Amino acid sequence: VVVPHENVADLAAWAVGEFGADGMAHVVASTSLNFDVSVFEMFGPLLCGGTVEVMRDVLELGDPAHAGRSVSLISGVPSAVAQLVGGGPSVAAREVALAGEAVSAGDANAVVRAVGAERFANIYGPTEATVYAAAWYTRDEITGVPPIGAPLRNTRLYVLDAALQPVPVGVAGELYIAGPGLARGYHRRPGLSAERFVADPHGPAGTRMYRTGDLVRWSADGNLDYLGRTDF
Predict the structure, then answer these.
(1) Does the chain have fewer CB atoms within 10 Å around its N or its C terminus?
(2) Molecular function terms in GO for this entry (predicted)?
(3) In the Cβ-directed half-sphere of 137, how many Cα atoms lie within 13 Å?
(4) Are 152 and 126 in contact (CB under 8 A)?
């Protein structure tokens, strides 16, 4: 996936704007550099003078050697971070940001309680949209399936039917992402790029949108609920 540098800079600027300098002050970077979430973990803190603490694996946070330590943000994949709960994590965190796969309310609440987090973020996005495209935040106990949230700045999200027309609130449709955060396409794969990055009939002339293959629906409060894949 070909992602311009300016897209990464905009993602880092969003991270600082959303989480603030305090939230980016000490971020645990435990995601493999082969996974796009590592871009968020590294460049957000560095943009505002924060500390990036590189760990081989997020499970290192459960090591008794870290007892009593505090960080500003723990980021990771839900299934990995949830494993911290059983072992009793030794590190406290101000915020928890999970992404990369669906998360249950039970796992989210357990992780928040285990690290004493003040706020939880469920973040969604494919690499084709420069890591993240939507996010949902809460400071309360989570009931029900956490939504994937509302679009980030400079991002347009469409829920469309087979004719590329918007569906009503509460009706399932395929998620399309548009805006300057889109990647240029797939390296040396023009056919696949043309298939997934299509003309945006709802945006300015000449713009594109990315067909995610994800099935979602808008809720009445303006957040997106993730329902599954359209191709499975």
Answers:
(1) C
(2) phosphopantetheine binding
(3) 9
(4) no
Domains of the chain: 5-151 (3.40.50.980), 156-229 (2.30.38.10)
Q: By C-alpha distance, which of 130, 178, 123 is closest to 5?
A: 130
Q: Are 152 and 182 in contact (CB under 8 A)?
A: no
Please identify which residue in the block is written with the tokens 């694996």: 57
What does the DSSP 8-state code read for residue 168? P
CA distance 132 to 100: 10
Maximum Cα–Cα distance across the chain: 57
Please write down the HEC assignment for all residues of 41-106: HHHHHHHCCCEEEECCCHHHHHCHHHCCCEEEEEEECHHHHCHHHHHCCCCEEEEEEEECCCCCHH
Q: What is the pLDDT along the chain (232 residues), one digit of tens a residue?
A: 999 999 999 999 999 999 999 999 999 999 999 999 999 999 999 999 999 999 988 888 888 888 788 999 999 999 888 887 766 657 899 999 999 999 999 999 999 998 999 999 999 999 999 999 999 999 999 999 999 999 999 999 999 999 999 999 999 999 999 999 999 999 999 999 999 999 999 999 999 999 999 999 999 999 999 999 998 6
